[in-house]
């Protein structure tokens, strides 16, 4: 991978959530935020177990970290960090002088992530409650989001905002229209969690496909270079953008 040019690294700490009690402020996306909180909060324990059990399946999560092209000492922010499954690989990439900040809107998920960090003695890891659609950080070297953009009604706008925060942005998302068995499983999962995904009636795979395409298009429009890798029979895609689109002609 061609090394991308980084903006000067900010050593200031990411800002805290905007409201004093750690709950995202009321805004136009509040209903979506509450929907995600209820959905993930209800099955935090199960999700934690499942995510850890499948962390190495298909190489998706390790591929995300490689796609970010992190350097020792970098600060990386993960939106939708959940119970902290990606943190070990992110810490290994940024080293002891780097920093990992996990952001999640669901308190139950953050509780599990913090307990994990305490058990392992991670001193360069911080977890913040906040909304990925209204990021509670000022700047970072890299941003990661795994299986998060499918939850947003407007992934293009959200990912565009992330591109203003960091030089490297990597997004893992569902990419339907691959193998029939995988798509059947994905369709069943989406229908089972229809409220979580805010699915419209009729075509859950079509909605997931459209939201993944919107996130990819945002990276293409906002980043200097974009890479893409497919995993698990083509049903999961990892797209990464590096640099700023304005640098292409420099």
Number of domains: 1
General shape: globular
Number of strands: 7
- The percentage helix is 40-55%
Count of DSSP H/I helices: 9
Q: Round the Cα radius of gyration to an integer and report it.
A: 17 Å
CATH architectural name: 3-Layer(aba) Sandwich
Low-confidence stretches: 1-5, 7-30, 44-55
| Distance, first to last CA | 19 Å
Taking the sheet with the most strands, its summary is:
7 strands, mixed
CATH superfamily annotation: Vaccinia Virus protein VP39
CATH topology: Rossmann fold
Helix and strand pattern = HHHEHEHEEHEHHHEE
**What is the mean predicted local confidence, pLDDT?**
77
What proportion of the residues form beta strands (DSSP E)?
15-25%
CATH class: Alpha Beta
- Strand arrangement within the widest β-sheet reads 3-2-1-4-5-7-6
Look at the helices and sheets and give the structural class: alpha/beta
């Amino acid at each position: 991978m061609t090394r991308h040019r980084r903006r000067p690294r900010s050593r200031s700490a990411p800002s805290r959530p905007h409201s004093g009690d750690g709950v995202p402020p009321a805004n136009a996306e509040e209903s979506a935020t509450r929907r995600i909180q209820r959905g993930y909060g209800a099955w935090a324990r199960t999700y934690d177990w499942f995510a850890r059990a499948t962390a190495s399946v298909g190489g998706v999560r390790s591929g995300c970290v490689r796609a970010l092209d992190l350097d020792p000492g970098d600060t990386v922010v993960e939106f939708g960090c959940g119970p902290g499954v990606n943190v070990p690989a992110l810490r290994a990439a940024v080293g002891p002088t780097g920093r990992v900040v996990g952001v999640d809107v669901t308190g139950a998920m953050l509780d599990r992530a913090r307990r994990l960090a305490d058990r392992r003695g991670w001193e360069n890891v911080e977890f913040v409650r906040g909304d990925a659609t209204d990021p509670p950080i000022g700047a970072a070297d890299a941003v990661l989001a795994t299986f998060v953009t499918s939850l947003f009604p407007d992934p293009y706008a959200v990912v565009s905002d992330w591109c203003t925060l960091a030089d490297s942005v990597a997004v893992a998302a569902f990419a339907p229209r691959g193998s029939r068995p995988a798509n059947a499983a994905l369709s069943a999962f989406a229908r089972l969690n229809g409220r979580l995904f805010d699915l419209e009636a009729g075509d859950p795979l079509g909605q997931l496909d459209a939201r993944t395409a919107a996130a990819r298009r945002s990276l293409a429009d906002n980043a200097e270079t974009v890479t893409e890798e497919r995993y698990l029979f083509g049903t999961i895609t990892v797209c990464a953008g590096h640099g700023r689109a304005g640098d292409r002609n420099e």
